[in-house]
Each structure stands twice: as C-alpha cells, then as structure tokens.
Amino acid sequence: MKLKSVISVFAFVTTFAASTVAMSSQSDEHAKAAGWNKGGGEQDAALHLKPDLENGLDVFEVCSACHLPEGWGTEEGTFPQLAGQHRRVLIKQLADIRALNRDNPTMYPFALPESIGDSQAISDVTAYIEKLKMNPAAGKGPASADLVKGEKLFKDNCVKCHGETAMGDAQKYYPRLNGQHYKYMKRQFTWIRDGKRRNANPDMVEQIKNFSEEDEVNVLTYVTHIPVPKEDLAPSKDYRNPDFD
Q: What global pTM score does this model have?
C-alpha cells in the first residue's frame, strides 16, 4: 500500500469517533435538507473537474479495504460492487454520504476529505472505478425465486428508469443494476421502499411502495440474471486488478 493510503487510513481511523458524533448531532438538520438530487456543492464540482486516474488509483486504495482491489464488493451484500458503475452515479452517492444526505456510518469516515481528499479526489476515484472490469460471478438471488414473475415486475416497474438491460441512465443518475450482488440490492430495495434511505428517488419510493417480500425477491433475482455486456466483465472470477500487483 502506498504511503498516501497509509496516511489516509490513519486519518479516517483517528477521526471516526468525531465523525460519528457529528453525524448524530447534525442528523435532524440534514434530514430536513436531504433531497433526491438537488445538485450543487461537491457533486457539481466533481462532475466538472478533469479526473486524474493516477490519483484515482491512490484514493481507491482506501476504498479497496472494503470493496476489494477489483471493486467487486462482497457477495453477502455488506459492500456493493462498484466496478463499472456510472461515474455520475458514484459522484452523487459519494457526495451525498459526505454531506450526510445518505446515511452510511460505516463508509462515512472513509469518505471524509481528511481521508481521501477534496472534490478533485471524488472526480478522480469515480473515474477510476468506472473503468474497472466487473465481477463475472456476482451474487445471484435464490433458486426458489420465480423469474417469470420477476421479469414482469421488472418490465412493469423498472424499465422506464433502469432500462431493459438494467444499465441505468448516467445522465439522470440512475444506477446500473446488472452485475450487482443480490443481497446488496435486496437491502437497498427494502430501505428505499420503507423510507430508510433518505436520498432515494421519490419516484422509485412511490413505484415500489406496495411490493411484497415475494415481489422483491422475484424482481431482484431476475435482475441478477440479466447479462452484463461481455466487454464490461473481467475474464474470470479469479481475475485480480493488475494495478495492485
């Protein structure tokens, strides 16, 4: 690990307690201010900066502690796959976490400017992540799921925003879903449906508010069976990010 990363790790560890207190004391204020996509601040700043991929790699070494050097996250769903995600989506989510518009106590200290840098760092690391090859063996939904029902639910409720192949829409900040781990999507879907994810798109909250548990399982399992374009995938599940050699 590079010296910069070691310093960053030390920074977020030593600021974790202070960060947690800050999140608690500001939660009411930010709950009122949070919105789906108000823009401004670091989100807009990072979008308009020219990314430096070399610095993006340095910043990503901090991220790799949880999301792995390949950006693949974990199949059990604690950490999502970031590799291949739209840069604009990544910028928005990282900026929202830093601004306390999205609750993520685990990631918050990692995302602080003291840990990874300013808006330029957001620009750099998201550009680096977007180009990473995706996991060809991401976590699938349960075999007991009804894929026929899942496909119908997806076409009736999800295609308008996420597209027929679940590629999302970068310009509108809709994430790509294909290739994401089932268990991560399941947790986020439930939180969005139940109003626990404060920066969720209100249109999605409304769209899925009446989904049953069975509906969730069926539609998300179907999503895990939507193919990822071959050019976006790593050659095998044993692939290792050569930047970390």
A: 0.87
